[in-house]
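Here is my example:
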Amino acid sequence: MALTNVRFVRLDGRAFVLARVPAGSLAALHVFFPDPWPKARHAKRRLFSPDFVRAAATALVPGGLLRVATDNLPYFASIREVLDAEPALEKVPGSEEGWSSGTDYERKYEKEGRPMARGIWRRRTTG
């Protein structure tokens, strides 16, 4: 079966969402194991910032989902803070458990016993 709706772009994820993704064009956006940039002087390079989250929310259709998974718990706390501050998004209750990203990173990290942080946010259908 030939796929006709697949496109590849070699571009930074932030730049892609900010400049290339039309409003209301995504049913879901998955961000799994983003670089945490742990040094304070590098934190500005983190993907999850208010401008990225605003653009991601705009790109989602009403009811569209933004799924996030990471093994970096301090970074997840920061991600959660910026996502919770975006008025167009709402946290899906109970979305921390019961799903897997299915990535090789996740499988490897779970074998190593690393804790995982996951969450799903939904584009509000009103407001």
In short: The radius of gyration is 15 Å. The chain has a mean pLDDT of 92.
